[in-house]
Amino acid sequence: MRTTWDFAGTRALVAGGGGIGATVARALAEAYADVVVLDVDKDRLEDTVRDGVTGVVADLTSPAACRTAVAEAVRLLGGLDVFVHAVGVNDRRPVLETPDEVWERLLAVNLSSAFWLGRAAGAVMVPNGYGRVVYLSSVSGLLAHRDHAPYAATKGGVNQLMRVMAREWAAAGVTVNAVAPGYTETDLTRAYLAKPGMRASMESLVPAGRLGRPEDLTGPVLFLASAESAFVTGQVLYADGGRTLV
Ligand SMILES: NC(=O)c1ccc[n+]([C@@H]2O[C@H](COP(=O)([O-])OP(=O)(O)OC[C@H]3O[C@@H](n4cnc5c(N)ncnc54)[C@H](O)[C@@H]3O)[C@@H](O)[C@H]2O)c1
């Protein structure tokens, strides 16, 4: 496979082996990185594992589990240069119909794991004087989509968490950025897009005239994970076909 990138010798951890995480993990491995992928879903991990990609099963909803998962990845890889956070869940309901457990689950999976895993990754990268952290945010971190209150709050939270980490770790050579996709065709959006009229309605909001594909995120994520992006930190890169322009 032809690749634009050379990640030879790079040790990368990708949290979340779903549509986007697995695609990014594969792209990193095809660019010669050694990659560990974390996911709660064993079957998904089995699909993701290949040459250069090792899977570790982990439910990332507690600080202890996140600490252990990062320690295991560092042990398997022999260090850590890149951390990509691509774990996420959504549950679309109006605010007045959102129960506590939905709010708490989205906070834990989308935002708390971003803090717990990012902190553990930073603890390895900062003393080492090099690191690249990339969060999968969302256009929902900026726009006020109805029925997205907990999800939007977690993505806005990820953006600010990322900015503070970026500021604190910049002098140590560790950059922290986010890629914010628009609607992308993965399991996260499959059922929603299958509703009558929903796909056409979503497509009509995108100036590029189509929804995103996981492959649309690999270039943006790999750029921010690469040595070439050394002076870019604290940024949200929208990869949304122009969705946030309108
Ligand atoms: N697909 C989109 O339209 C879209 C748009 C904007 C942002 N994003 C973001 O991109 C990231 C990746 O999303 P995706 O589209 O690949 O979704 P996906 O549903 O395909 O993958 C998410 C993965 O997270 C894993 N996961 C869920 N809970 C977990 C837990 N407790 N512990 C460990 N793993 C857990 C799931 O098993 C799944 O493999 C998420 O942060 C998502 O919010 C996606």
From TrEMBL:
Example GO biological process: fatty acid biosynthetic process
InterPro entries xref list: NAD(P)-bd_dom_sf, Sc_DH/Rdtase_CS, SDR_fam
S-adenosyl-L-methionine recorded as keyword: no
Top-level taxon: Bacteria
Keyword Transport on entry: no
Record GO terms (molecular function): oxidoreductase activity, acting on the CH-OH group of donors, NAD or NADP as acceptor; quinone binding
Pfam families named among the record's database cross-references: adh_short_C2
Name of the protein this chain belongs to: SDR family oxidoreductase
Organism: Streptomyces asoensis
